[in-house]
Specification:
Blueprint: H1 2-10, H2 18-33, E1 38-42, H3 45-57, H4 69-78, H5 80-89, E2 96-98, H6 103-112, H7 118-126, E3 132-136, H8 143-154, E4 158-163, H9 169-173, E5 176-179, H10 185-208
Parallel strand pairs: 1-2, 1-3, 3-4, 4-5
Helix pairs in contact: 2-10, 3-10, 4-5, 7-8
Amino acid sequence: MKHIDLLMERYPVLECCKNDIIDAFDLLDDTYSKEGKMLICGNGGSAADAEHMVGELMKGFKISRKLLSNEVDNLQKIDPDMGGVLAENLQGALPAITLEGHPALFTAYMNDCDPLLCFAQQVNGLGKQGDVLFGISTSGTSKNILYAAVTAKSKRMKVVGLTGAKDSKLSALADICIQVPETETYMVQELHLPVYHCLCLMLEEKFFG
């Protein structure tokens, strides 16, 4: 729990969220241990945070994530030259997909259907039991994230929320909700980053440390 301890040392204001952060880690640990994946969504600055999280999970963050020996062998058996390059450069990854990308799908769905359901449509297509939806909303009331959360729950996925201090529809829907102790949007966002950095560091250490 060194990363949690460091987080509390650097951001004492987050002490009120400590247990929820640990619970979120435990849930994500269980998800990845059972070969599940994380779908992450947010709007505006929170969309950038979702992309940021994927960047920390899908490649090395603080640890060199060398491939396993059997993965290296499989690559080199297929093509010794290209396999060698791949084995030297590929890194271990924790499967995570942000739902703000996919512009062709996004715009097609927005044009043909209800734009507020774009995230929900992707959860419907990509999500399965054993996966997690990680919804980032400073208010906890973003309708597109709420629709995605309801869709996730209907598929027996788990839902983790990252919000501000106020109780919200997202905090009620989520299995775990980390409610940082601010209500002003930019201040909430300033506390979201160290929280998800901590989660990513803990997951990386668990699976690649």
